[in-house]
Specification:
514 residues; 3 domains; single chain; six-stranded mixed sheet; alpha/beta; Rossmann fold
């Protein structure tokens, strides 16, 4: 009888994707062992699994032990859509130099051969390990005088780039990083926006060569003392959950020459640069479809909105005397408004790296979906109206100067809108956005009228004219009373649109909500 196939499964995806893979596996035909991060220990405690912490490389002890003693015929790396699994494939591929080993990746139940270009040359790899050893000794020697730490900035996405750096600078201002020599590099040498990267480079020691120091730290298990994990890696979310930005001042700014450039480019858009401007940001599927084809863009659909619902609110702002600028880089369709003080910058043909930052950094206030450009406004302490938020607990509640409005959630089985207590009790308020794709729930976008009324509220708020009634205050307090401190939020100071809460009071605060 032929030997059963020996399968090594390495999980890097969300737990649900790993479970789907395991359920589809015919255990009668294979012997399988799993290597899973320790974070998944409770979810897979009944499986034959080894739980690890640390970064994969060819001599990573759990992997080395599996290769030497289990001798798998095949390795499957169950990947997330955006997880950095290249290091896992590269580590396993090293052993293809010594025996016949198939390596596949599984993304959303689709299995395909691992990228062959990740297979390392054994001689070069061994030389690299020797070089990393020398760097590890250098780190140790330098740290005798001043403790050295290295950090990767998750820079390919604009929001993460903005928050990783700004939260670190806020922590530093608050005294958290005193006495350390901190060195940084941009992940994979990619920067979502060169202008923003340049601004932060003025305040932080950022150099691509520092990634080799980080490799040495990870390879020789020096992370406890010499790796600095920034916000994105610490909480696995792009958010200021401690509200540190509100506790500190601005850390980056433009030079006088850069401000002059910004004013000139606003004028080139056909607008008066002396007139205050408001930025509008919608979200659609075009950006991810074009920049990350084959990604999970289809599963992000609940975050999108119809840009035309901005029309009434934009016209209100124009009547109030603002320049109104629809921002973005790759969009599905223009916002059709005819007015001398309006410009659809995203469709103007004049969009560029510098103005993508300058416009949200200098606006009077920002209106839009929670996305990268809004985080740029955050780090410049610009008040934000956050609209069409899918999950209640993912709203950033740090600033009392902000305003928010979320999407209603309808249960298709019952045909009714879920109340706030139901949304929170069910966990939907902080679901991964992918969970909505195959769920029984539909999200309902904010209407054009709701956006108009929220923009009116925001205008009054920013200009110190907002005077909430006692009933509005009571309703806000009632809403916020349902939210609890968690790894998403430590403060709840951002109010929800008063018009929105009143309009949907019967649905959101139903009779079950005592």
């Amino acid at each position: 009888m032929a030997d059963r196939k020996r399968l090594l499964i390495i999980g890097t995806a969300q737990q649900c994707h790993i479970k789907d893979f395991l359920e589809a596996l015919d255990r009668s035909e294979v012997d399988a062992i799993l290597l899973l991060p320790k974070r998944d220990q409770e979810a897979f405690n009944d499986e034959q699994a080894v739980f690890f912490s640390g970064i994969f490389h060819a001599l990573f002890p759990p992997l080395l032990k599996a290769i030497l003693f289990f001798r798998p015929h095949e390795v499957v790396v169950v990947c997330g859509m955006t997880y950095d699994h290249g290091n896992v494939v590269r580590a396993v591929s090293f052993y293809q130099n010594f025996y016949d080993l198939r390596i596949n990746t599984c993304v959303r139940d689709k299995i395909s051969p691992a990228e062959s270009g990740l297979k390392p040359n054994p001689v070069k790899e061994i030389c690299k390990w020797a070089a990393l050893g020398s760097l590890a000794l250098l780190i140790k020697a330098t740290s005798l005088f001043k403790p050295l730490r290295v950090a990767e900035i998750y820079s390919p996405r604009l929001g993460h780039l903005a928050l990783d750096c700004e939260i670190y600078l806020s922590e530093k201002e608050l005294g958290r990083h005193e006495g350390f020599l901190d060195l940084f590099y941009f992940k994979d040498g990619q920067v979502a926006n060169e202008t923003l990267g340049k601004l932060f480079s003025r305040k932080m020691r950022i150099n691509d060569k520092f990634r080799y120091l980080h490799e040495a730290v990870l390879f020789f298990n020096l992370s406890n003392k010499h790796e600095l994990k920034l916000n994105t890696r610490t909480i696995a979310l792009g958010r200021d959950f401690e509200c540190l930005i509100q506790q500190t001042g601005n850390h980056v700014d433009f030079t006088p020459q850069e401000h002059e450039r910004g004013k000139c480019e606003i004028k080139a858009l056909g607008l008066d640069p002396q007139r205050p401007h408001v930025c509008l940001l919608g979200r659609d599927s075009a950006f991810l479809q074009q920049t990350m084809p084959g990604s999970d863009g289809d599963m992000q659909e609940p975050r999108n909105m119809d840009i035309s619902t901005f029309k009434a609110g934009a016209e209100e702002l124009l009547d109030l005397g603002y320049n109104v600028i629809r921002i973005g880089s790759i969009v599905q369709e223009p916002l059709k408004i005819e007015h001398p003080n309006f410009v659809d910058y995203a469709c103007s043909g004049k969009q560029n790296d510098f103005m993508d930052i300058y416009l949200p950094a200098t606006c009077k206030f920002f209106v839009g979906a929670q996305s990268g450009p809004m985080h740029v406004a955050n780090i410049f302490r610009i008040p934000c109206l956050r609209i069409n938020v899918v999950r209640l607990e993912v709203i950033e509640y740090c600033s009392p100067d902000d305003l928010a409005m979320f999407k209603l959630i309808r249960s298709e089985s019952s045909g009714r809108i879920l109340s706030i207590p139901e949304i929170i009790a069910s966990g939907i308020s902080k679901w991964p956005i992918e969970n909505f794709a195959d769920s029984n729930f539909t999200v309902i976008d904010n209407t054009e009228n709701e956006l108009l009324e929220a923009i009116k509220e925001m205008y009054l708020k920013v200009n110190g004219k907002n005077q909430p009634t006692d009933e509005e205050k009571r309703r806000q307090q009632h809403y916020l009373s349902h939210l609890k401190i968690s790894n998403y939020n430590t403060r709840f100071e951002t109010p929800i649109s008063a018009f929105f809460l009143k309009k949907h009071a019967n649905e959101l605060f139903n009779s079950k909500d005592s």
